[in-house]
Amino acid sequence: MKKICKICGKEFEARANNVVVCKDPACRKEYNKQKYLLNLKPCTCSKCKINYLATQKQSHTLCPKCVNTSHIFKHTYEQQHCCRQCGNMVYTEVKNVTQTPQYILYDITCDSCKEENARQSSIRMTLNNSNPLSKTYNTLDEALIAKEYRQETKRKYKTQEERSLAASNRMKQNNPMKNPEVAQKVSAALKAKYLAGEIVIDGTKRSNYKGTRGINQYLRIALHP
Question: What is the pTM of this model?
Fold first, then answer.
């Protein structure tokens, strides 16, 4: 259906009866602005007692100026975070609030209490093992001695020398250079490279040779004239 735009006065096609403006963004913006102004009603601010205009959906207790300044904090204080077990203060935190704050909080556990809890837990687990095959000990010393004995019996090599000797024997067993055939092939390949000149024995012809120093030459001549 054809309608006349209320803003620009041009004719346009509309699919619904409640459409009164065309599709031009400027017309729609102007129409929304006029509609907003028509819905404004006079209100009085409860804080500064100044009259202002607001819609029905907006707040009618504070004016826009008081709303923008209502979030400003009234109090600045230091809140102490203390350990829930020993009660010692761990750190302080500066906060800004408008209501009555809680100055001391027991909401964390300090490092010393954490270490003590871990130690006590380890003692309880050592003394009272839930495994039915294990033994329950009366003191911590008995449990530690039994633990050391179990670890000692599980060790295949008692000393560092035994472990080093076993590692050396394993390397000798799996070392290909211990095989005579491999050693003969490597020796033949080195001899061929020496004869072909790929490997140079003379030190003066090497790539990293930096020249003979004077003191060395003097000592060689003095010792072997």
Answer: 0.32
